[in-house]
Amino acid sequence: MMERTTCCVVGGGPAGMVLALLLARAGVEVTVLEKHGDFLRDFRGDTVHPSTLALLDDLGLAGRFARLPQRRVRTVRLPLGDGRSPVTVADLSVLRGPYNYVAMVPQWDLLDLLAAEARREASFHLRMNTEATALLTEGGRVTGVRYRTSDGGTGELRAVLTVACDGRGSLARGRPELGLRRFGCPMDAWWFRLPRRESDPSGLVGGAGDRFLTAMIDRGDYWQCAALIRKGTDRRRRAAGLDRFRADFGAAVPWIADRTGRIGSWDEVRLLDVRLDRLRRWHRPGLLCIGDAAHAMSPVFGIGINLAVEDAVAAARYLAAPLRRGTVGCATSAGCSAGAAPPRSSPRRCSGRPTPGSSPRCWTDGRRSGARRAPGASPHWSPDRGSAGSRRTSSDTARCGSARRRRRSGSRRPRTVPPHRGPPDVRSGRP
Predict the structure, then answer these.
(1) Which of 279, 282, 315, 424 could share a disulfide with 178, CB 3.0–4.6 Å?
(2) Strand partners, 86
(3) Distance separating alpha carbons of residues 91 and 110, to the nearest angstrom
(4) Which residues contact 32 (CB under 8 A, 6 or more apart)?
(5) Cβ-count burial of 168 within 10 angstroms (0-12 exposed, 13-18 middle, 19+ buried)?
(6) Tell me: domain 1-70+105-184+275-431, CATH 3.30.43.10, correct?
């Protein structure tokens, strides 16, 4: 059976759901394929940074997000001194609000919120228990995916554009023309839980022992614990026995040593194979990769989910108008990958915060700028909301090309030249 859609999003993670929501609000028909029957997976990235909190506010979801079960982390503590007692080394509460904290929210709750909001748009379709098994190609162009459902059914979904948001195991990563580049990573991580008491420290707490470093995330009634181990030593360390691990972890974090006995078996200790890599090219005709499908990130500081959201916002900004027209060329896909690839995009640009010197009428929605909203238009931000004041101009394009030529030649930009502004602010201008 063959079906058609405008944009096929493979993977219902943070990148896929944010992109689908933004495109649906812009009037683009979008179909998300998620291989699982729900979003409930443990030890997934759920560290929501201030830039992502600000984006949710821009989308009109701040109130509903605040009602989700969450822990707001404002401090980072490390054991220092001879007594190795926790000392605060970072305090986010001194930053300007309202989002001067990191929200620790179960990822499944966040994804359920995004899915519920996207279902309000008639052009949004979410198909659970549907796994993309192969990319369809015709004449060198990706034209959709072949899929399989949990009950054994198969089919084909044709699309103007297929966006791979299916993580570091993405189908797209097998394509040699995208050029996967791997970077050395010295560590893996063990994830597990330990009970938390009211008298315990709060926030994000680190520790150090003779055999590994630790990080503990305050989840309210329990600690989500990470033990960072040398890469490739998982099997040898497990062979040393669970008692050895309990003792080592208790030595690294003495104030919780009396609870390490709650780790009943190695089945409760999950291995995260930490990878650092990125595709040399994030696109080809009919295909775009974002999030971990384009660049697998370290779990340090929980940056992965937030960079995935940035990718989605930058991609939606470039794709909305071409997808409505049904014409997405290589230049559009290249613009998406250039706009999303670090370091050109910043949390400020991708989260929709105003850039210095920008006009409020360019980056705010109709409610804030005083503009009248068209009948039936969404009351919240969509990728093509705003005035034309921040469209990319020919001079912007020329600067971008000049910057690429300078990078290839090894020369540096004179300091007298203003820095390139990067992709347009995602809330301003029309595509």
Answers:
(1) 279
(2) 79
(3) 25
(4) 9, 11, 12, 16, 17, 20, 124, 125, 126, 127
(5) middle
(6) no
First to last CA, the chain: 34
The pLDDT, as a whole number, for residue 366 is: 32
Q: What is the pLDDT of residue 124?
A: 97
- With H, G, I as helix, E, B as strand and everything else as coil, classify residue 220: coil
Low-confidence stretches of the chain (pLDDT beneath 50): 341-379, 381, 385-400, 413-431
CA distance linking residue 289 with residue 309, whole number of Å: 13
Comparing C-alpha atoms, which of 270, 334, 274 is closest to residue 303? 274
- Full strand arrangement of the beta sheet holding 222-230: 85-91, 75-80, 204-208, 213-218, 222-230, 187-195, 270-272
Cα distance between residue 429 and residue 431, in whole Å: 7
- What's the one-letter identity of residue 164? A
Residue 191 tokens, joined: 């994830």
Question: Hey, what are 322's tokens?
Answer: 């071409």
Let me know the angle formed at the C-alpha of 126 by 121 and 129, rounded to the nearest 5 degrees. Answer: 165
pLDDT at 321: 92
Are the C-beta atoms of 252 and 208 separated by less than 8 Å?
Answer: yes
Q: SS3 of 289, please?
A: strand
Q: Which are the contacts of 348, defined by CB distance < 8 A and separation ≥ 6?
A: 51, 354, 355
Q: Token digits for 402?
A: 């000049």
Strand order in the sheet with 276-279: 180-183, 276-279, 295-296
How far apart (Å, rounded) are the C-alpha atoms in residues 69 and 81?
35
The single-letter DSSP state of residue 371 is: P
Q: For residues 331 and 288, what is the distance between their CA atoms, to the nearest angstrom?
A: 12
Taking the C-alpha atoms of residue 39 and residue 126, their distance in angstroms, rounded to an integer, is 12
Rounded alpha-carbon distances, angstroms, from residue 131 to 71, 156, 211, 295: 33, 11, 40, 21
